[in-house]
Fold this sequence. Notes:
This protein is an alpha+beta fold.
Amino acid sequence: MTSVKSLYFIIAIATKKHSSPLLLFQLITTIFIIFQMTRIYMYLSLARKMVFQDGSIQESCGDLILCSGGTSDRIDYYIVNVLTKQWFLLPRTPLENNTHFMSTSERVGFLIEPSFVDNAPCQYLVLRFISWGDSKFSIHVFSSKKGNWTRMVVTSPRNLNMLTRRTSIVACGRMFYTFTYERNDVVDCVLAFDPFTNDPAQFLSVIDFPPEARDKPCLTCKLGVCGGRLRFAQIVLLPSRYLYPCISIWELEDDYRIGKWTLVHQRVPTDTVFRVPALATKWVSVLTFHPYNEDLICFLVGNDHIVYNIQADKVESSTLTSLFEKSLDVHWYQLPAIGGQHPFELKAWIRAVEHSYLLLVVHILLIQDVVELVAPAMLSLLCGFAYRDRNGFYS
């Protein structure tokens, strides 16, 4: 059903915004690409069932996907190339004595090392971050160049409270990043990891958020990448009868060691789609930044995906049926559920597979130069399958 919905959403957005003579050709090209990617999606689904026991897809980078499976005290990692359908099993991860913390506090990052040599073999890194409570954590780094894991125990310069342990690891350039909370709803700093350094003193850096961001209790925060730069989104609710979010977007300067942030956007959306019910504290969250367009951000508002142009204060696309053409015969609420379940109630591994599948579709669309036709639709779709944990936070 998801593939049908994806195709319907693309056609709906395309026919709404484009009427050029090349529209039919572009649509046929897009449908063909999606058909090919659906085959890859089915391959991933089947392979997951055959190889993994309670497995999941962790991260993706380029055409590579990082998967994991195993028990709470021993996890196997696989690198999957969905284009060549090749699987590579990483060596066993180092043993940890703190298995309780592993099961609740492990996070994973994945990056491909940039290469400036033509036809050079792909080098990638996997980073495991395992908290040992509030003061220490383990770091496991796998390098495809070295072919093994290295392990270190680090004393955290900042408190790793329970909320901090749920923030994701973000890869940007040659670095990994995550952020910490000072208390429940107030952020503290960014932790930057340099996996390529041989100097332990240079491995971990602390980047403080600007005072304007640290002093505000926030509804939700998101660390991500746009145009190769690290960005931080913060949503603060304004007090009123109907709550409207104030969205602030900060960007880190190229030299992360300086720790200078620039406020690139700050906006209170005027569209009523962003209006938050008084009792719905988790109503709005940032799913991701557009990888290239600095003005586009994808939100989850309730159960709907909104692609919002923060510069123009305009909703570019959405899964809300009210934003589609009234003449369309099929509506989202008329599409059948799977096994009696709403799509958003499907298991997390399905969402993760579809997330990577759709991410790759967008990557192919960018190569095929049809991104202007389908990017807003596909962006909101690929963002929509983010994993919601039991406490309602998004990774």
